[in-house]
Amino acid sequence: MMIFTEAEARRRRNALYIEAYAKAWAEASPAERELADLTMKDRWNDADRARHAELTRGLADTSAR
């Protein structure tokens, strides 16, 4: 069993998070990527809200099949 310093453990954990995020992003569909981009915005306008609803419905329809 290896024992790491707190800083090394944090570095390794962060590296795992980054790797998992990169893998998920690479496997995401264009619609999933657009939805992720929208959800990270601080402020939404009416067009953003409408597009979010459209993407959410589309992804829900796709996953229900």
Blueprint of the fold:
Layout: H1 6-27, H2 30-39, H3 46-64
Helix pairs in contact: 2-3
Keywords:
mainly alpha; 3 helices; elongated
Describe the structure.
The protein has 65 residues and is mostly helical. It has three helices and no strands. The chain has helices at residues 6-27, 30-39, 46-64.
Please identify the oligomeric state.
single chain
* Average pLDDT for all residues: 91
Biggest sheet features? none
Radius of gyration: 17 Å
Give the overall silhouette.
Answer: elongated
Poorly predicted residue ranges: none
- How many distinct beta strands? 0
Which H/E pattern describes the elements? Answer: HHH
As a percent range, the share of helical residues equals over 70%
Give the helix tally.
Answer: 3
Concise description?
The protein is mainly alpha-helical and about 60 residues long.
